[in-house]
Design goal:
heterodimer; A: two-stranded antiparallel ribbon; globular; B: 254 residues; Fumarate Reductase Iron-sulfur Protein, Chain B, domain 2; 2 domains; 5-stranded mixed beta sheet; two-stranded antiparallel sheet; 9 helices; 35% helix; binds protoporphyrin IX containing FE; binds iron/sulfur cluster; binds FE2/S2 (inorganic) cluster
């Protein structure tokens, strides 16, 4: 066990955890986005509520969701450890500094903090409400009764402050991934002239598309639906 | 050699490792654009000596870009405004008459300030001592071509071996990470058959030492390669990560 703990308390081991959890969270974002698109169907909530029921009852999804929660928690804990160590490594800064690197790459901790705030608000408003509160019920086409999460989300997306926070935080997600996506592969040791240019461009495309698509839904509901 | 450039210098002065330092302003006159940055400092120091003040301490040795001593953080960048060169290779023609130039030491907890612009970089030596070598029996030099090495690997190993241990990568990195340096030193041996026998032990020991010295973790910002006078590439850091991961998975160190 000694070698194991030593590996993951060292700088490369910690980064490895960041990359593995971070890239896993990227796949989760895709699945989550597919679900959110059900909100755009003007069907009174059938598609979205069906999706919510599926996500909270399917055993495979439920198992994966525990993996997901632990990934988020691990990503955050290791992020804090790394950021503290990195601050300690440069106790005194420069009077003048012209750092030749991208803004996103230098501010992963700040961007991550915005994402964390978002996750907390988001979990409180939707996840906790869905699991622990009495919400109005909705009858699905298959006859089963479910809590009407659609109504809940729709309500929130009619609140300009909520929409503002949501869109801002999606910007943070986009910037986080603008650097994070390709950085994760570099951390795993995957850097080769054959595929690295491809990873870099798909990372940029992924970050922009994910942020824009997530942000589009509340904007659409607030302004158009 | 004299010229007609007049400059304002703002230089970090610090008596020793324990004292508080501060930026002090100096006027330097009659600088030739053909002088190197270090020669400009020589002019300033002679002025200070004539005035009875303590000259500014700074590290330097070869003054031709090969020893890596001339650590100066100039106007916000290690080794100044140009890329791919050291401070001693920087010429005053890269500045304009009347410019203000801010000069600071490398900043990292692993590189404590000794005096003024001089920092202690022996952390790098300890990383090399931890494994940046190959163990061979001394004796007659082996035949040059006894071990065939494909040109591609020889070239890549040579590129990594151009690292002069200057520490600009650490100075440039927002985390004061030494990953570029360590990756160059691991790569130059990992790419060659001579380095193969000890490769797992080497990467584990060198990375352990790097962590112990208090260098930060790599966020892959790329600032190190952008400032490295030898333009050591990020590909080496990926190789270091690979070497480390595979050593951890297969080495006998428990
Ligand atoms: C949707 C959620 C998130 C995703 C998809 C994500 C993804 C990623 C990825 C792919 C990386 C790159 C890993 C590497 O460089 O090897 C990364 C790095 C990072 N993440 Fe996240 N992240 C998320 C949430 C968070 C949160 C909530 C925090 C903080 C509280 C955070 C803090 C960080 C930090 C500080 C780094 C940089 C670590 C370093 O290289 O020094 N992330 N993230
Ligand atoms: S990698 Fe480059 S910047 Fe870092 S010590 Fe070597 S030569 Fe200097
Ligand atoms: S003095 Fe040797 S590299 Fe500058």
């Amino acid at each position: 066990m000694n070698w194991f703990l030593k590996t993951f308390s060292g700088s490369i081991g910690r980064k490895l955890l960041m990359a593995l959890t971070g890239l896993f969270l990227c796949t989760f974002l895709i699945v989550h986005l597919i679900g959110n698109f059900q909100l755009l169907k003007q069907d009174g909530g059938e598609a979205f509520n069906f999706y919510a029921k599926f996500m909270t009852s399917n055993p495979i999804i439920k198992t994966t969701s525990y993996l997901l929660y632990s990934s988020i928690v691990l990503h955050i804990i290791v992020a804090i450890l790394i950021t503290l160590q990195n601050k300690k490594s440069r106790p005194q800064g420069y009077v003048v500094s012209k750092n030749k690197s991208s803004w996103a790459s230098r501010n992963m901790g700040i961007l991550g903090t915005f994402i964390l705030v978002f996750i907390v608000v988001h979990m409180k408003d939707f996840w906790a409400e869905y699991h622990f509160e009495d919400l109005p019920m909705y009858q699905l086409k298959d006859g089963s009764m479910v809590k009407d999460l659609y109504l809940e989300v729709f309500g929130a997306f009619k609140n300009i402050y909520y929409v503002g926070l949501y869109v801002f935080c999606m910007g943070a997600v986009g910037y986080h991934l603008w650097h994070g996506f390709e950085s994760g592969f570099q951390t795993l040791g995957l850097n080769h002239k054959k595929y690295t240019p491809w990873i870099q461009s798909s990372g940029k495309a992924f970050s922009v598309l994910i942020a824009a698509a997530f942000a589009f839904i509340p904007l659409y509901i607030y302004f158009i639906a | 050699m004299s010229g007609n450039m007049n400059l304002t210098l703002k230089v970090w002065r610090q008596k020793d490792g324990k004292s508080q330092g501060k930026i002090v302003d100096y006027q330097v006159k009659g600088i030739s654009p053909d002088m190197s940055f270090l020669e400009m400092f020589d002019v300033l120091n002679e002025d200070l000596i004539k005035k009875g003040e303590t000259p500014i301490s700074f590290d330097h040795d070869c003054r031709e870009g090969i020893c890596g001593m001339c650590s100066m953080h100039i106007n916000g960048r290690p080794h100044g405004p140009k890329t791919g060169i050291t401070t001693c290779q920087l010429h005053m023609r890269s500045f304009k008459d009347g410019d203000t130039i801010v000069v600071e030491p490398w900043r990292a907890s692993a590189f404590p300030v000794v005096k003024d612009l001089v920092v202690d970089r022996s952390a790098f030596d300890r990383i090399i001592q931890a494994g940046g070598y190959i163990s061979v029996n001394t004796g007659e030099a082996p035949d040059a071509n006894a071990i065939p090495i494909p040109k591609k690997y020889a070239d890549e190993a040579f590129d990594a071996a151009t690292c002069i241990g200057c520490g600009a990568c650490v100075a440039a990195c927002k985390n004061a990470s030494a990953m570029l340096f360590v990756s160059a030193k691991v790569s130059q041996l990992a790419l060659l058959p001579q380095g193969d026998a000890e490769r797992k032990q080497r990467v584990e020991s060198m990375v352990d030492q790097m962590n112990e010295e208090g260098f930060g973790a790599c966020t892959n910002t790329g600032a190190c390669s952008a400032e490295c006078p030898k333009e050591i590439s990020q590909v080496n850091i990926a190789r270091l990560n690979r070497e480390y991961i595979s050593a951890k998975l297969t080495s006998d160190n428990i």
